[in-house]
């Protein structure tokens, strides 16, 4: 039977080691919430190893050896340390959702300390259990020695009843399974005498905690993160929409004085544009660049009506076979016209270039306007809302980049890069 015990402990050690590395990875993302999870896996690894070594000493008929007794002492200490870290982990986990009382930790620490000492002494005098070459047999104080673990489990049950409404059903199932490990171990020993399965059953329950508690929590956090990003994008787009419409209406306003007939034509064109393109303005994800070009051409057509020869437009569109966030390139054009060219007496030229390059698409918006101070370009001013939002949406929706190169008196050059995998 000891050979079977050794094999089972080796298997449990490997599984726990894999889960330990998984817990470490989760810890990097949520250090405060998973600190005790990592410690639990580390303690369980030591407990499995020490229990496996004890089985080895019994297999070679050296159960009474000093090293065998030391390993048994280590195993007992790790057991109560394991229970204590589980209590701390549960308390931390629930505290993240709701303010909790720490009575369970205050009660668990002295219980685990006292019983750890008692079991270490037992490894040498046999007052709780006796380790022989034939296995482990109960000592005179065996039942008293079991009470420490039972006290911890009873307190955990009370704690779960107290805070059950803050836990999901699968979380309660995983936590309760942890407390059934000793019972399962006793049942297994009833059918297979000599089987030391406590550490193995704890390995199974830790796997359940990783699946039903930690993994589901990480998935939930990722979903919330995605939802938060989507809400931010929605807010960013809602800021751009009125900004875009305001500038179009402002252009039509100037046309009313300069050329009423042209203003009427512009209003008619604008109304048709809104009817045909409003769905694109509501789009939260990405649209084809050809659709974005419709926005750009419409905007520049209206600005050309207003500024005539002061506004020069140059297109070098080599490809439109990719996607961008809606109203992402148009605000760059708008920024070039409003805050670059039209602040010069003679106006200037805005240039739009798209190219297919290696593993992505390059979009260039360039003007020969007044330029700007890059150190102050993201000040809290209305004209910079578009730039900030465009950069954020390109990064989040396309995993792309946006770089601005400008200096006062030297114009502005904006380069957007869209990776092919997200285009």
How does this model look, in words?
This protein has 423 residues and is of the alpha+beta class. It has 2 domains: 2-224, Rhopdopsin 7-helix transmembrane proteins, CATH 1.20.1070; 259-422, Heat Shock Protein 90 (2-Layer Sandwich). The chain has 11 helices and 9 strands. Strand 6 (348-357) and strand 7 (360-367) form a beta hairpin. The relative contact order is 0.07. The strands form 3 sheets. A 5-stranded mixed beta sheet has the order 4-6-7-9-8, covered by helices on one side. Strands 1-2 form a two-stranded antiparallel sheet.
CATH-defined fold name of the largest domain: Rhopdopsin 7-helix transmembrane proteins
Approximately how much beta-strand content do the residues carry? 5-15%
CA radius of gyration is 35 Å
- List low-confidence stretches: 377-383
Short description:
With 423 residues, this protein is of the alpha+beta class. The chain has helices spanning 2-29, 35-59, 66-95, 103-125, 142-163, 169-191, 198-258, 260-281, 289-307, 330-341, 385-398, and strands spanning 129-132, 135-138, 287-288, 311-317, 323-324, 348-357, 360-367, 401-406, 412-419. It has two domains: 2-224, Up-down Bundle (Rhopdopsin 7-helix transmembrane proteins); 259-422, 2-Layer Sandwich (Heat Shock Protein 90), CATH 3.30.565.10.
């Amino acid at each position: 039977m000891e050979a079977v015990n050794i094999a089972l402990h080796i298997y449990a050690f490997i599984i726990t080691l894999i889960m330990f590395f998984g817990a470490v990875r989760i810890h990097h993302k949520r250090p405060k919430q998973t600190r005790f999870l990592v410690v639990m896996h580390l303690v369980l690894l030591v407990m499995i190893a020490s229990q496996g070594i004890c089985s080895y000493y019994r297999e070679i008929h050296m159960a009474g050896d000093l090293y065998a007794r030391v390993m048994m002492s280590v195993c007992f200490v790790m057991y109560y340390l394991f229970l204590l870290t589980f209590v701390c982990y549960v308390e931390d986990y629930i505290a993240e959702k709701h303010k909790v009382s720490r009575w369970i930790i205050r009660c668990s620490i002295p219980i685990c300390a006292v019983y750890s000492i008692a079991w270490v002494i037992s490894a040498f005098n046999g007052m709780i259990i006796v380790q022989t070459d034939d296995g482990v047999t109960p000592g005179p104080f065996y039942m008293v020695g079991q009470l420490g673990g039972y006290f911890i489990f009873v307190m955990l049950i009370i704690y779960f009843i107290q805070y059950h409404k803050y836990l999901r059903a699968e979380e309660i199932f995983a936590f309760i399974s942890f407390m059934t490990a000793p019972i399962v171990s006793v049942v297994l020993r009833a059918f297979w005498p000599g089987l030391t399965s406590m550490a193995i059953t704890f390995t199974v329950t830790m796997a359940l905690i990783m699946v039903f508690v930690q993994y589901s929590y990480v998935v939930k956090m990722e979903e919330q993160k995605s939802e938060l990003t989507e809400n931010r994008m929605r807010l960013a787009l809602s800021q751009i929409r009125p900004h875009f419409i305001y500038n179009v209406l402002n252009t039509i306003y100037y046309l009313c004085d300069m050329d009423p007939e042209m203003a009427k034509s512009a209003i008619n064109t604008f109304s048709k544009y809104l009817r045909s393109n409003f769905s694109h303005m509501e789009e939260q994800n990405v649209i084809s660049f050809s659709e974005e070009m419709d926005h750009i051409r419409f905007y520049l057509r209206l600005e050309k009506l207003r500024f005539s020869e002061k506004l020069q437009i140059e297109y070098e569109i080599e490809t439109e076979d990719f996607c961008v966030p809606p109203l992402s390139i148009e605000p760059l054009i708008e920024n070039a016209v409003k805050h670059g060219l039209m602040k010069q007496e003679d106006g200037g030229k805005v240039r739009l270039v798209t190219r297919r390059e290696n593993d992505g698409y390059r979009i260039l918006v360039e003007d020969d306007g007044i330029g700007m101070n890059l150190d102050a370009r993201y000040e809290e001013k209305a004209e910079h809302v578009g730039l900030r939002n465009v950069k954020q949406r390109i990064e989040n929706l396309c995993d792309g980049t946006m770089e601005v190169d400008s200096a006062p008196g030297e114009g502005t050059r904006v380069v957007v890069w869209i990776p092919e995998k997200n285009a």
